[in-house]
Amino acid sequence: MQAVTSISSVGAENLSLSIGRRTILHGIDLPPVHRGEVLAIVGPNGAGKSSLMHCLCGLAKFDGRLLFDGVPVPAPARERRAWAPHIGYVPQNTGIRAKISVMELLLSAQKSHTRSVAVHKKELERAERVLERLDIMHLGQRLCPTLSGGQMQMVALAQALVLSPTLLLLDEPTSALDLRHQSQSLKLIRNYVRKIDEGGTPRAMALVILHDLNLALRYADRVLVIDDGRVSAHGALPETLSLDVVQRTFGVEGEFVQDSRGEQVLVAY
């Protein structure tokens, strides 16, 4: 099996998922998402957003093609392991019952991709840097089971970022966060994927499931709208997220207004 050093793009062709007799995803086409881009995945509850995320990160068996760098990803799980170190996945439910501290969690995450058992200075510094950027350094010595839902969500994001992945798959990473940490987390994600690496290219790409359409408008470059297991809209923001798309997908009326920065904000009625 050829070694994989990074992932430069992710896409899907005719991706379908069935559980029993129920079809969850119907022939999803995801045009390539490249490094430097944030794709927001939006849609009503039960539309299939999390199911799509499970397919992308290898947790669900699907029909169709998943493409990394334009090349179909092999179906056998053992073949997909080559890509695992380059993917940072944050699930919707992030509870960790193990009685370890947040710092121990971040250090063990780094050890999972190395053969060394000793803690190196650079690993400790990397963990501290991520905690600081997320403004949760004070949680470093807290035991994971003692954290609130919002705190654990921040820690789960830190756990993904500490591995320096080139592909971030984030399932509602802001659902339990207050306003300040919502903005802080998404700003960090956007800055992370756009940062230029030593090779002169953006560091990573991110696919983020969001329920707040205004967060998608503010922090994402593109949007994939899913409704009833099908893609109902895809394209650049803010153009793609029109009032017609919002009304058709979510069944609400509304209007777009400009905020003080000149950016569009959706006001739903």
UniProtKB/TrEMBL annotation:
Record keywords, A-Z: ATP-binding, Nucleotide-binding
**Pfam families reported in the protein's UniProt record:** ABC_tran
Annotated CDD domains: ABC_Iron-Siderophores_B12_Hemin
Q: Show the PROSITE patterns listed in the entry.
A: ABC_TRANSPORTER_1, ABC_TRANSPORTER_2
Q: Domain ABC transporter spans what residues?
A: 10-253
- What organism does the record attribute this protein to? Nisaea acidiphila
- MF term (GO), any: ATP hydrolysis activity
Query: What domain of life?
Result: Bacteria
Q: What is the protein's name according to its record?
A: ABC transporter ATP-binding protein
Instruction: Note the SMART domains from the entry.
Output: AAA
